[in-house]
Write a structure and sequence with these properties.
single chain; about 800 residues; alpha/beta; Rossmann fold; 4 domains; 7-stranded parallel sheet; 6-stranded parallel sheet; 31 helices; 23 strands; about 15% strand; globular
Length: about 800
């Protein structure tokens, strides 16, 4: 009869789970996960010893509620460090971090963090806990008494202190991921299990089946070409791009770029490349598409599901972004908490593990996970081994993060059998960073081109004439006047800030009413945005010349398939301007070129900012600098400014990114001057996770009362109140009615309308809320609370 247990009974009264059973199951599962990157032996060690501290009488008391404040995870890491020395450091780090996160990766710091004397006393323990048992030899004896043998040292240790910093840290995260996912899957199966003790596992994702999927995609592309209203010139560009993708797919796995003009069909052509590449390399298990904006995920996921799910089932395509994560209040400040309560367990088990063949995720979710230290955030990383990772609109990666980001991707290709594709119309000059990347990941950054001569595609892509009106500023009233009097059926205006979009929409609403006036921003939930885009597209296709004016933030710039006759763009990053040009005369159907105006917004007060802070502002300043340089060059060479400053010339973007890298100091990713670089050199997983932020400020998820779906909103609200905890199914259903926003400031009145989601037994989520005031959800603007400017309008 079992004496030591891993978990108590579940909600339906199952037997307690014996510790031996849990360790066996986790070790076997982790071993299988890590086998894909030749680290099965070390993963087995991590699985067998991750809960070694539960071989103690005091932990049994904890399960009965008679003790608390216990650290059951560190002693297994201490035992592994003493037993295997430097031959299983990845396992040591994984065991130590499977509840609290990866800690320190330098040898001396690892030993200091695993000092039994310090961890045995709540007064000296960093989290004010105490070890369940300080004598690791005693626990190993109990481990053997339970029928186990002490594992042998792994023949090929995963973590090597000689491997460059980012590469080595990623290696540790991959084993950590395998352990965490195995532990979470088995723990979930127990707590979702039956009263007789049998376990309920979440459904496993299907296989990729690339040959079959490729046939479906190519058939769809042929149908699109046959039915497309696009001009012959645009059709030829799309046909040539697809041909280049198919011809390049048999190459060896590695790093690629795909450079083609907007409207060339990159998203589906890139997927066709990936599927054919997977046919050529049978080891490939999944395809991950990484995009910058939620609006692109929504559009792309809809297309992929419609095409593929009828053939492969509902678990073939997985959408994963900020609207899928759950954090518990004060998780990182949980001093004195031993992570065994129901709320923390609920939050952990809701983390996504990417068990699907086709993943769609955001740049924020993907890159911040590569540099994370928290278990839930890292849980999915082992799934990247033998994957094809497609980056759409990669120009949105902040330059300040380019060197570490490229280094992590380089290591995935070098060590984990991945292929990476960077796709955009405005390809960043990342290959210039090869030497810097090489100092952090041995492979460096030397991508191959999928399209051998991108310029030939751009030469035939000129469909828009651009008027640069940035020598003087324009008031929003003057812009609204021109848009109101524009006789074209379709006009698009893209601005830099939500506040500017609200201002412009309000002016036009006063002039024209709401008929034919539309707005798009992330203040609107996905269901609302889908409806707006559907109506906009119907109006643009209409032969009756109906009015259609769309005011949008940058969320419409990349990957959103709309086709206007006229476009306006507030001065911003050059790649953003090029993306808006790609939404103008996109199909080449006009008997003339489309028309686009780039304007400089007027500053309404000396304290007003015109751009989001940080990298966006720096990129806008780079655009202005390059504009002035090209004006001088045109005069000196006696050529037209349009020829000197040609957004259809990829060479212009090489120059733009060179200037941007100089401005942002990217060339000096120096540990003495850069906090992230310093943390990487110290191999501090905690500090790296804190410093690596694609978006500097965290966001919260809010279920909003969108009036067209108010019945669904009420049903979701009532169900959450009734079940008293977030579930994976609830989150999936809630996404279409959820927006992500910056948290309001402490004391803001808006908090009275934000009800935190429950996590069971009094626990509350820190980043999931229900919005309680339906009057604040505007049918045109989305969530628009009064007197709460900052969180909603940056």
């Amino acid at each position: 009869m079992a004496k030591y247990f891993a978990h108590s009974s579940n909600k339906v009264g199952s037997p307690w789970e014996p510790l031996k059973e849990h360790l066996q199951l986790v070790a076997k599962r982790a071993e299988g996960y890590a086998d894909t990157f030749d680290a099965a032996e070390e993963a087995r060690i991590a699985g067998l010893w991750h809960d070694l501290g539960k071989y103690s009488d005091v932990f049994t008391k904890r399960l009965r509620g008679a003790a608390s404040g216990l650290d059951h995870w560190s002693i297994g890491a201490i035992a592994a460090l003493h037993t295997f020395r430097e031959k299983a450091i990845a396992a040591v780090l994984a065991i130590q971090g499977h509840h609290i996160g990866l800690q320190e990766g330098l040898g001396a710091n690892i030993k200091e963090g695993l000092d039994p004397a310090k961890l045995s006393d709540a007064g000296t323990h960093p989290d004010q806990l105490r070890l369940t048992e300080a004598d690791w030899n005693l626990l190993l004896e109990r481990f053997k008494d339970d029928g186990f043998q002490i594992p042998t040292s792994p023949r090929n240790p995963l973590y090597d202190f000689k491997v460059p910093h980012i590469g080595a840290m990623l290696d540790a995260r991959m084993l950590f991921s395998a352990l965490v996912d195995a532990d979470y899957v088995e723990t979930e199966a127990h707590f979702e299990g039956n009263a007789d003790g049998t376990k309920n596992y979440r459904p496993m994702g299907p296989h990729l089946q690339p040959e079959r999927a490729l046939r479906i995609i190519t058939k769809h592309l042929a149908k699109l070409e046959k039915e497309s209203p696009a001009s012959a010139k645009v059709q030829n560009i799309r046909r040539q791009l697809l041909e280049d993708c198919m011809n390049s797919a048999a190459r060896s796995r590695g790093i690629f770029t795909l450079t083609a003009p907007t409207g060339a069909g990159k998203t589906l052509a890139m997927l066709a490349f990936a599927l054919k590449h997977a046919v050529a390399h049978p080891e490939i298990r999944r395809i991950v598409m990484v995009v910058p904006f939620l609006s692109i995920i929504e559009q792309t996921a809809d297309v992929y599901r419609e095409l593929l799910e009828p053939h492969f089932g509902p678990h073939y395509v997985l959408e994963h972004h900020s609207l899928a994560d759950v954090e518990i209040a004060n998780e990182d400040a949980g001093r004195g908490r031993d992570n065994e309560d129901e709320a923390r367990r609920t939050a952990r088990l809701l983390a996504e593990n990417w068990d699907a063949p086709l993943i769609l995720t955001t740049s924020v979710q993907f890159f911040e996970s590569l540099f994370a230290n928290r278990p839930a955030k890292c849980r999915k990383l082992h799934r990247l081994a033998n994957s094809i990772i497609l980056f759409d609109e990669v120009q949105t990666l902040p330059p300040r993060l380019a060197v570490p980001s490229l280094s992590a991707l380089s290591r995935l290709c070098e060590r984990y059998g991945c292929t990476v594709v960077f796709s955009t119309a405005t390809q960043p000059a990342f290959d210039q960073l090869h030497d810097q990347v090489k100092s952090y990941a041995a492979l460096g950054w030397k991508p191959e081109r999928i399209t051998p001569e991108p310029q030939r595609l751009f030469t035939h892509a000129r469909r828009v004439d651009i008027s640069w009106q940035i020598d003087g500023s324009r008031s929003w009233k003057s812009i609204a006047d021109e848009l109101a009097h524009d006789e074209n059926a379709g006009s698009l205006c893209v601005v830099n800030l939500k506040r500017h979009a609200i201002k412009l929409v309000s002016l036009l609403r006063d002039k024209l009413g709401v008929e034919g006036l539309f707005h798009l921003s992330t203040n609107m939930c996905p269901a609302h945005r889908r409806k707006v885009l559907s109506e906009v597209r119907e109006r643009l296709k209409s032969s009756n010349h109906v009015a259609c004016r769309l005011i949008a933030t940058q969320c419409v710039e990349a990957g959103v398939d709309v086709d206007f006759a006229v476009a306006w763009r507030a001065l911003g990053p050059l790649d953003g301007i090029a993306q808006v040009a790609g939404r103008c005369n996109r199909e080449g159907k006009l008997d003339r070129n489309g028309h686009m105006v780039v304007f400089l917004p007027e500053r309404e007060s000396s304290r007003e900012y015109l751009y989001p802070p940080g990298g966006y502002k720096e990129a806008t300043e780079t655009t202005k600098t390059l504009f002035e340089m090209k004006k001088i060059e045109a005069e000196e060479k006696g050529i037209s400014f349009e020829k000197a400053f040609d957004i259809y010339n990829p060479d212009l973007f090489d120059k733009y990114y060179q200037l941007l890298y100089d401005l942002t100091g990217l060339a000096g990713f120096d540990p003495d001057r850069n906090e992230l670089a310093s943390a990487i050199h110290l191999r501090s997983f905690v500090k790296v996770s804190q410093e690596y932020r694609v978006i500097p400020q965290n966001s919260i998820n809010v279920l909003v009362p969108y009036k067209d779906e108010i019945a669904k909103f009420n049903e979701l609200s009532d169900r959450l109140t009734e079940q008293k905890r977030l579930t994976r199914d609830w989150i999936q259903e809630a996404r279409p009615l959820t927006i992500s926003i910056y948290p309001p400031k402490n004391g803001d009145s808006i908090w009275q309308y934000l009800e935190p989601a429950p996590l069971g037994r009094g626990g509350k989520a820190d980043d999931w809320f229900i919005y309680l005031n339906p009057e604040d959800y505007d049918p045109l603007l989305g969530l628009n609370p009064k007197n709460e400017v900052d969180a909603w309008t940056i």
